[in-house]
Amino acid sequence: MTFYYDTQAPDFALRFKIHFESMALRRDIVFLCIGTDKITGDSLGPYIGTLLKQRGFCVYGCLGSTVNATNLTAAAVRIYREHRDPFIVAVDACLGRRDHVGYASLSTEKLCAGAGVNKKLLPVGNISVTGIVTEFGTDSFTRLMQVPAKNIETMGKAMTEALCAAALCT
Question: Among 3, 60, 93, 150, which is most buried by a count of CB atoms within 10 Å?
């Protein structure tokens, strides 16, 4: 099941928190924030990871120390090696429908990172959180490079607030 939320809506954090709490099990939450800081549109995960880490959460994937296609499997193995029975929240940027750009999604499904640019990577997470940063299309990679940094910052801050509120209540 997947829920979509407008990150600019005044009740975004509250609505997100309610659904997150119904999905998250009462165990240690580990955030796996996926993306690269080399492509603006793909930097949402590491940006959120940095903000979450600053607030004291357990995070894999931050600006300057990203989890991406080249090291995703190794990061997942490391999480299971270092944490007993972790509840992994996978966070990433994604491509979507035009009317969902600027929205966040929360899903009970594992995250399939890289799917929007035709990469087949290890599905990760007990639940997944994505920020829809641009429209899906034939030139998806180019679209990711053209996402304004301000959009990533705005979405990232809103999503971090919602994740913090939700994670602190589990």
Answer: 93
The total of structural domains in the chain comes to 1
Q: What is the CATH number of the domain that holds 87?
A: 3.40.50.1450
User: Whole-prediction pTM value?
Assistant: 0.93
Residues 7 and 119: their CA atoms lie apart, in Å, by: 27
Using the CB atoms, write b or e for 116-139: b if 16+ within 10 Å. beeeebbebbbbbbbbbbbebeee
Q: What is the pLDDT along the chain (170 residues), one digit of tens a residue?
A: 899 999 999 999 999 998 888 886 667 899 999 999 999 999 999 999 999 999 999 999 999 999 998 999 999 999 999 998 999 999 999 999 999 999 999 999 999 886 655 677 788 999 999 999 999 888 877 888 899 999 999 999 999 999 998 887 65
Structural domain span for residue 30: 2-168
